[in-house]
């Protein structure tokens, strides 16, 4: 069986700094994998290498058994990999609906086809469904820049799902989000995971969020994988506790 | 060989003028992220102001004095206080665009307020030929070179040997840290603008006897200074110095040996190659760059 | 955004008949001035796409104006082409050169891109001045013919103005269509956040090149109309300062607003002619006015209006949030307070 994502002995060095130092793991169809570790352990660098934002020093990334190392972020996205960033990244001067249409349009037909085709690339209905799903209806026509932080965070996540991705990498989706919003977000992610069969990798510092959402957790420390397993096992792993307390 | 030596001296003289303008350009970029598209007009204007003075009947020395003081006040202090300061919070590009508008404004004011024709400018050095190692060299070129180098060395001594100079240098290299260290950053930034105006002043008085004083002089000098600053390294005084001499030499040698019609084109090609291959400049430190 | 562009379409369609009829009483000089306004609006529209929508700082629009003008002048006077064919060829040539000039834009951004395009503009100017066999050098090219279309001579000032008006309308509609399409959205995304856009599948390289090429094609098209308008061209109007003025035009009018180029071109090209009565001082007044506009509102005149409108819609959004709070329960009320406090 091929894995949705397979990372083998991935390394990324910045000069003498080994940000990611030989990381291997796989992600299976339909799973929600948590990626945790102390600050500066290389999680975000690993994400950026997988997503083509950075070129790995060594190693290989496979998507559905196909080598995708070295592809551009846009190419990877069109292969069905989508992401959110640690810091908010919505387009403040576009409306909420336009943000979502933008997030889906590059997956619809050819470039020339989009120029002469429908102005919304046929995505208004889909965008409105997404808006309703994330409970942003009353803000659909507002500029995204005018939304509150939590609302922008929801929009940011919603944009990652517009193109019906196969694999979604979420970089700290819970960062700075209040508890009620967090429960809402977790529920949304679980529904999407269940209904669309989308596979997730989630970087997060909020342990309760990770442990209740994810079916499996990978722990990184100093560029390497420290432990891997179901949340219950990770929670009691002495090496993991040491890594967190040591910092 | 004889001709080559003459060209090298002429190139160094031109280069010294470019270097004066480029150093000022670099200084204000370093301290306040100002890309001054009007730098060429800054070099054009002082000579025009002197002529306005002499035409009004002032004796030459008084015209020089009045023009110099007025220029440094207006385009050192005034430029910083009334254009750069209000624009700075909007970012690099809006400020650069404002200096473009200033460039058009100054040029048109010189053209309509004074003269559209090139005017003779009193030379501080008599023209003539000097014989050096068997080669006949233009005394004026040598004098320009010497005066410019004295100005640059003076600036360098000020920066490295005086307390104020060193403080200014620290501000230029890292305004944020300087502020933390309790350096009066605003005063230091103002100082760089005053120095910029003074360097432009010197360049203006050196170049105008050769090319005559004309409202459009700033175009080519500004472009050359601009290229010199970027090629040498946008963020280094010695980069601007080296860039100035390099562009001066390329300029004169191209005109003589390649094509006088395309003498401006060769430095531009150098500019584009440097930007694409080593955008921090030949002597520059790596700074911000986008992918 | 969609609603705003629809309003733009309405304004275009209302303005057209007015502009068709309005100048009929003008003498030929007055007609020349409004014609110049239209032509420069086209060039500024192109730069507005490159700079205002896609966020790429170009100092090359004056050069493309020159490329279009010279291509048309040469094709119509030396090769005897009719103007429509020369117009298409000039635009296509500018498009192609624009793609080439776009490549550096893939490597460098912001002020570095401005420097590269500045170098390009000076080189184009030098070629126009020095390659006498092709461009006539400083003597330029004279007697550029005005067109005869469908058997009717459009040489006189008024018919030629109306032809320009029709072309401007068509190009403005095309721009409106483009900006409303997914491409327009992608250009905007490029300007606001290229990294995020790429992560959503937007092909940054392709859109960067296209933004440059389409903007340049508008520059070339404007040049192609400029040549028969003035009937004589030499290198002077395509010097570096022309590119400065075009950039100022777009910025003063309002980079990234649909009618910004028209407003800007009014200031840069029509106002100076209206101020001719002030003697030699009109360009000084113009430069001072532009400097003031840029300093007061870096987003241009239409940017001022936009800011005011944003302000209003923000207020409306706040009202909507407040009104929605009861149905969403405590959640949306807490979002604001906790959201800001809990960032790490």
Walkthrough of the structure:
- Chain C: InterPro entries: ABC_transp_permease, LivM-like.
- Chain C: This is Branched-chain amino acid ABC transporter permease.
- Chain C: It is found in: Cell membrane.
- The complex is a heterotrimer of chains A (247), B (291) and C (344).
- Chain A has 247 residues and is of the alpha/beta class.
- Chain A is built from ten helices and ten strands.
- Chain A has one domain: 3-Layer(aba) Sandwich (Rossmann fold), CATH 3.40.50.300.
- In chain A, helix 3 runs parallel beside helix 6.
- Chain B has one domain.
- The C terminus of chain B is likely disordered.
- With 344 residues, chain C is an all-alpha fold.
- Chain C has a two-stranded antiparallel sheet with strand order 1-2.
- In chain C, a hairpin with a 2-residue loop joins strand 1 and strand 2.
- Chain C is globular, with a radius of gyration of 22 Å.
- The two termini of chain C are 33 Å apart.
- The interface between A and C is large, with 57 and 48 residues.
Descriptive terms for the model:
heterotrimer; A: 247 residues; alpha/beta; Rossmann fold; six-stranded mixed β-sheet; four-stranded antiparallel β-sheet; 10 helices; 10 strands; 37% helix; C: 344 residues; mainly alpha; two-stranded antiparallel sheet; 15 helices; 2 strands; 1% strand; globular; disordered C terminus
- In total, the number of domains of chain B comes to 1
Mean pLDDT of chain A: 89
- Roughly how many Å is the radius of gyration of chain B? 19 Å
Question: Helix and strand succession of chain A?
Answer: EEEHEEHEHHHHEHEHEEHH
Strand content of chain B: under 5%
Name the CATH superfamily classification of chain A.
Answer: P-loop containing nucleotide triphosphate hydrolases
Protein chains sharing the most extensive interface: A-C, 57 and 48 residues
Largest sheet entry of chain A: 6 strands, mixed
CATH topology of chain A: Rossmann fold
The oligomeric state is: heterotrimer
Strand ordering within the main sheet of chain B: 1-2
Helix content of chain B: over 70%
General form of chain A? globular
Question: What percent strand of chain A?
Answer: 15-25%
**Order of helices and strands of chain B, N to C?**
HHHHEEHHHHHHH
Number of domains of chain A: 1
Number of helices of chain A: 10
Describe the global form of chain B.
globular
- Please estimate the helix content of chain A: 25-40%
End-to-end CA span of chain B: 46 Å
Give start-end ranges of low-pLDDT stretches of chain B: 287-291
